[in-house]
Design goal:
single chain; 105 residues; alpha+beta; two-stranded antiparallel ribbon; two-stranded antiparallel sheet; 3 helices; 32% helix; 14% strand
C-alpha cells in the first residue's frame, strides 16, 4: 500500500490509497530481487507526493523560495519545510537559454 499526499481540496488534506503489486525476480544473479509497480504520471519512486502536488509546491517555491514558500504551502494545507521547498527547486530542470540574437557564433 502507498499513501501519497495530493493537492488539498476544499481546505481538506487529500491522501490517496494505492494498492501496488510487488514482483519478485526468481533469478539469483539479479541485482534487484524485488520490483514494485509504478504509477506513471501519478507518483515517482519513493515519493510521498503526487506529481500534481509536487508541481504545485515547485510553483510556490519558484515564486517565494524557502521560508515564505513553506508558509504559503502551510496556508493551503500542506506541511513542508523550507529546505524541502529548496530541494524541489534544485531538482527542477534548467530553463532553456535563448541563443545569441542575429545568428552569432
Amino acid at each position: 500500500m502507498r499513501f501519497p499526499a495530493d493537492v488539498p481540496s476544499g481546505g481538506r488534506l487529500v491522501v490517496l490509497q494505492l494498492r501496488v503489486r510487488r514482483f519478485f525476480c526468481p533469478e539469483p544473479s539479479c541485482a534487484r530481487q524485488t520490483f514494485a509497480e509504478q504509477m506513471p504520471g501519478l507518483t515517482r519512486r519513493h515519493s510521498r507526493w503526487t506529481e500534481r502536488l509536487r508541481s504545485a509546491l515547485a510553483a510556490v517555491g519558484l515564486a517565494l523560495a524557502g521560508r515564505a514558500g513553506a508558509r504559503m504551502a502551510r496556508a493551503f494545507g500542506v506541511s513542508i519545510s523550507r529546505s524541502a521547498v529548496l530541494r524541489l527547486l534544485d531538482a527542477l530542470p534548467e530553463p532553456a537559454s535563448p541563443g545569441p540574437a542575429g545568428g552569432w557564433c
